[in-house]
Amino acid sequence: MPKVRAIANVYRDYGVKVYLAVRFDSPAAIGGLPTADPLDANVIKWWTKKVAEIYEAIPDFGGFLIKADSEGQHGPSEYGRTHAQGANMLAGVLKPHAGIVMWRAFVYDPNIDADRAKRSYKFYKPQDGQFAGNVFLQVKNGPLDFQHREPIHPLIGGMSNTKTGLELQITQEYTGQATHLVWLVPQWKSYLDFDTKATTLNARVKDVIAGTTFGYDNSLFAGVSNMGDSPNWTGQTMAQANQYGFGRLSWNPSLSAGAIADEWIKITYGVDPLVIAGIKSILTGSWSTYEKYSMIGSTGEVRSPANHFDPDMVTNQTYSMADASGVGFDRTRAGSGYVNQYSAAVADMYNNLATTPPEFLLWFHHVLYTYNVFPGKTVIQWIYDTHFEGEAEAQGMIDKWVSLKGKMSRVCFYDVLKNLNAQKAQASIWRRYINHYFWDLSGIADDQGRSVSARSN
């Protein structure tokens, strides 16, 4: 508690409250009780006393962040209670102090549904309207796990009687970690600007989380950060652009990615027009470049489960559903039915192959390799082309950066260059692996005559 109080005292002058991420089973884990059942009188008494102690030390304490029944964390389901009951117990204890509960809404129990993307919505939707007014359901941007590209989580816009907030991942767990340069602001903008069509007006994601769509009296915009002990905090200098971009969007989600890029570059590297233009060009295209060399459209989860960095199509076949004839996960009404978790207008759009945006084609549809995803380009050729393009663009990022040599400190220049070179090497590995995998699976050659038949080429 002394350390938390010291942190709170520092931030108080800036109008920032401190919150605590705590274990739901704390009464049993550290409190000496035989249970953490949220309806048990002794458990409620324990939390009431603990919360009073916290507020005595930190009068402006904000509340709790809870992760329950997921990835090894204990939760109310162990006691036959709903998440609403678990969250509401804590909300009741915090309410006299004006505290809130941020309840992370991801549960991946395979018993809920065979399609992992459906599980969180199916688990929480029946509890809509049951959560207390000082509880926020903190929802990841997509239904899987911070993949490079996912459709918006259907709980956002789908819980009209529950306060929902958006959780983004600033740290690059699935986008090259601290090595690859991937600017995530364009990705986040694609979510914030998406129209859930949950209502006829003001139903974009940024409207929902701001509270205007369903009349919330406050809002939640959360980020999973990656501040560490490296000299530049984020592992490489350019990753700081994601920290800055998240902060700017949290206050003004209508800002453009270009405006945020201009601000960060000037603050970090100065006002030289050539530096601004060069770095902005690198940042702007980096998400697309990463997607091209490392992914297969929006299939998700093609990295090794051991390190979330290297390619592993075999272990993750249940996400890509790649077979000898085609690729993609059928989540239409005729498939897993995932599309029905959205509003009717959005569900209709994704259910129809012709109206599904190309970037989400393989998330919602299983298509033949010979399907024309673009005029004159089949799916298999699109896979080959994008991976060659991504590798080339990774080299292009190096060339752009080298052109800026002498326009910044040697430390800054070589820090980024080292990582860009590592990124290019990894892009080559991904290109060889993915293209060989799909050539081996489909037996279809690249129509440009490039070698895709060996990982060593």
Q: Can you put this structure into words, describing what you see?
A:
- There is one protein chain.
- By secondary structure, this protein is an alpha/beta fold.
- Helix 14 (379-402) runs antiparallel to helix 15.
- The chain folds into two domains: 2-269, Glycosidases (TIM Barrel), CATH 3.20.20.80; 289-329 and 366-442, Alpha-glucuronidase, C-terminal domain (Alpha-d-glucuronidase, C-terminal Domain, Alpha-Beta Complex).
- Helix content is 41%, strand content 8%.
- It is built from 15 helices and ten strands.
SS-derived structural category: alpha/beta
* CA gyration radius, whole angstroms: 24 Å
Strand order of the largest sheet: 1-2-3-4-5-6
Beta content: 5-15%
Taking all residues together, what is the mean pLDDT?
95
> Unreliable runs, pLDDT <50, ≥5 residues?
none
For the termini, the CA-CA separation is: 57 Å
> How many structural domains?
2
CATH architecture of the largest domain: Alpha-Beta Barrel
The CATH topology of the largest domain is what?
Answer: TIM Barrel
Q: CATH superfamily of the largest domain, called what?
A: Glycosidases
User: Count the strands?
Assistant: 10
Largest sheet: 6 strands, parallel
Characteristic key phrases:
TIM Barrel, Alpha-d-glucuronidase, C-terminal Domain, six-stranded parallel beta sheet, two-stranded antiparallel ribbon, 10 strands
